């Protein structure tokens, strides 16, 4: 027994020393937290999702075994936990489950305490605050209109915060846990996609007391910088321009918070908001303590495609032509990556204002140009012609025939003018003149990017596809999408399938077992894992990500629509990612893109993987798996198994 204890202590000691040595070799940006912890949604404030541990490496990853699992919601409804990432501090994991927050032993999965949540759904994450000289560590979550603080030690309400642990907030709802920067809690806003409604201002609160600290007007008011980009009073009562995602990033050394803001209401028509519309579709840098404006970069002028900026930027230091630059990489639904100086917002590798096509919708205001990076090159295909239609050799004759029929129904051609292709007015009785805009909700969505601070590589998973249709006079009884009912806008998106913007260039067919299958009609690959060298702006490698199991053997390596998740990179030279609808969890070589390990899961891991050090000195790899795959998971009676869970791996304990 003494030998076992001595071995365990020795292993733990050497693991700690190795982690500390690895930490010393990292740039300062990657040394915010102990190397064995995962205390924030993206691990640290930089958003790099970089794990400075290397027990699990290119050489050892093939030996991974499942260490433990935790079932999320035996009562059902586990799919709502997509996008959830636990936090781990000093060997304890904190996890939201929708109707509760639980604390688990991070190396065994044993439940320590459970905090029940009433009248709200807690998902995506919980926020950890380490406490101070007079307050113990806390966890925070949001009910939608109030922040709640609980003690990390026992899950009880933190009485010194707000009123008995609850601090209501004004303005638009925000249902996700706040981001935290020192003692400042930051929340965004969830606004309706209408022409009138609540503002999308970002707000900040004190982590000790819950008191309001500041708000930033994401749509500038009269006299504020950027107000002049709203012509004809289009700013008034305008919803949107909101930070809707559930975490954001910051440079703690310069006290700078980076907000990625969405589109202004309403989508697809902006004739009542002429102008570039700052700070919509922009990255805005503000002071963490005061909310004071520092700089901005607008990725889309006068947005008409619902290409809001979902993911926060990832911070990465680069060296260009021998000069060190504190930079960040911004990605979004338009399939472009902007590498910017994070102190000034200036492009590192250049951005040009490129002339783009304009549509013909009455009263619309079209920006003549849009910002296109000189480097990196677009991560997605942005141009289309009929030769891009999938063939039977790519998939099968049934799918190819369905795609040809879909194209024929639109007259055999779509309009495409490359990036930012507009949609044109279609009146009832007109021939079906449609545009195809690429990508269709692709690029990098909320999964965002990971970065390796030792190499300057940025890793992002992207999806391909095309959005098809037109702009039509709005049918007051038509369903134009979630959150749009009651809009008074005169025009909105439509297509041959009816009102709404969700018509992609995809076609449905029957597979060999008679099941309906819907697949993209552009030629594969439909999804890729891409590594960009931020130092040069060049793509270092790209490889298909995901498969299509519904296709015949030999044709399944298509890449997949994989926007529902993101990657994590490790000091062991690995990029871990779930995200794909095939339910496979993968590891790629971070230098070459070679697939080095994979495991089929019952549920797709539609989130970001994490890794940490257990109390036993072992490195663990964890992911929340809740997404549907081609094969439903059923129990013995044929009912849904409700087996969505946290899955944790480790190397053999030897």
Automatic annotation (TrEMBL):
SMART domains: PQQ
Iron-sulfur found in the keyword field: no
Keywords: Oxidoreductase, Signal
Cofactor requirement: pyrroloquinoline quinone
Residues of the Pyrrolo-quinoline quinone repeat domain: 38-620
Keyword Chaperone: no
Signal peptide: 1-22
GO MF terms held by the record: oxidoreductase activity
PANTHER family: QUINOPROTEIN ALCOHOL DEHYDROGENASE (CYTOCHROME C), QUINOPROTEIN GLUCOSE DEHYDROGENASE
Entry's family note: Belongs to the bacterial PQQ dehydrogenase family.
Name of the featured protein: Pyrrolo-quinoline quinone repeat domain-containing protein
């Amino acid at each position: 027994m003494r030998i076992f204890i001595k071995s365990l202590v020795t292993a733990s000691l050497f693991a700690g020393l190795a982690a500390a040595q690895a930490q010393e070799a990292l740039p300062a940006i990657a040394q915010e937290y102990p190397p064995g912890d995962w205390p924030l949604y993206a691990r640290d404030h930089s958003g790099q999702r970089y794990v400075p541990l290397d027990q699990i490496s290119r050489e050892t990853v093939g030996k991974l075994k499942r260490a433990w699992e935790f079932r999320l919601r035996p009562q059902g409804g586990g799919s709502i936990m997509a996008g959830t990432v636990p936090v781990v501090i000093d060997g304890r994991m904190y996890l939201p489950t929708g109707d509760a927050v639980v604390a688990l032993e991070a190396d065994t999965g044993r439940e320590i305490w459970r905090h029940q949540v009433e009248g709200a759904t807690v998902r995506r994450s919980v926020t950890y605050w380490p406490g101070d000289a007079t307050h113990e560590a806390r966890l925070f979550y949001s009910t939608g209109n109030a922040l709640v603080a609980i003690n990390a030690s026992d899950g009880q309400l933190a009485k010194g915060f707000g009123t008995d642990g609850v601090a209501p907030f004004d303005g638009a709802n925000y249902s996700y846990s706040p981001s935290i920067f020192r003692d400042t809690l930051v929340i965004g806003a969830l606004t309706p996609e209408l022409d009138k409604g609540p503002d999308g201002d970002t707000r900040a609160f004190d982590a000790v007391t819950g008191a309001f600290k500041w708000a930033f007007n994401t749509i500038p008011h009269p006299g504020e910088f950027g107000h002049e980009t709203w012509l004809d009073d289009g700013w008034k009562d305008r919803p949107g321009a909101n930070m809707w995602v559930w975490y954001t990033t910051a440079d703690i050394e310069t006290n700078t918070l980076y907000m990625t803001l969405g589109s202004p209401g309403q989508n697809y028509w902006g004739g009542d908001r002429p102008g570039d519309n700052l700070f919509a579709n922009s990255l805005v840098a503000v002071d963490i303590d005061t909310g004071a404006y520092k700089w901005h970069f607008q990725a889309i002028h006068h947005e008409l495609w619902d290409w809001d900026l979902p993911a926060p930027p990832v911070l990465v230091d680069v060296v260009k032509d021998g000069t060190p630059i504190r930079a960040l990489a911004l990605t979004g639904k338009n399939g472009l990556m902007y590498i910017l100086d994070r102190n000034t917002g200036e492009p590192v590798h250049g951005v040009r204002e490129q002339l783009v096509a304009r549509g013909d919708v009455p009263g619309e205001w079209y920006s003549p140009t849009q910002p296109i990076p000189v480097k990196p090159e677009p991560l997605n295909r942005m141009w289309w012609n009929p030769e891009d239609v999938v063939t039977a050799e790519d998939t099968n004759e049934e799918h190819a025939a369905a795609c040809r029929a879909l194209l024929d129904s639109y007259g055999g051609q779509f309009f495409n003018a490359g990036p930012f292709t507009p949609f044109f007015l279609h009146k009832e009785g007109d021939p079906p003149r449609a545009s195809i805009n690429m990508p269709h909700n692709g690029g990098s969505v909320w999964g965002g990017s990971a970065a390796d601070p030792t190499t300057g590589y940025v890793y992002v998973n992207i999806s391909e596809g095309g959005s098809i249709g037109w702009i039509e006079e709005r049918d007051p009884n038509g369903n134009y999408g979630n959150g749009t009912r009651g809009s008074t806008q005169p025009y909105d998106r439509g297509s041959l399938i009816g009102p709404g913007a969700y018509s992609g260039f995809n076609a449905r067919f029957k597979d060999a077992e008679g099941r309906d299958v819907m697949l993209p009609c552009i030629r594969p690959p439909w999804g890729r894992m891409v590594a960009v060298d931020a130092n040069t702006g060049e793509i270092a490698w790209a490889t298909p990500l995901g498969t299509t199991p519904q296709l015949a053997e030999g044709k399944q390596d298509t890449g997949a629509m994989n926007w529902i998740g993101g990657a994590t990179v490790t000091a062991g030279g690995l990029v871990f990612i779930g995200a794909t609808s095939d339910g496979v969890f993968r590891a790629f070589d971070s230098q070459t893109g070679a697939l080095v390990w994979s495991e089929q899961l019952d549920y797709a891991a539609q989130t970001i993987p994490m890794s940490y050090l257990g109390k036993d000195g072992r490195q663990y790899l964890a992911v929340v798996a809740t997404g549907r795959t081609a094969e439903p998971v059923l129990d013995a009676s044929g009912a849904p198994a409700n087996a969505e869970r946290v899955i944790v791996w480790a190397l053999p304990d030897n």
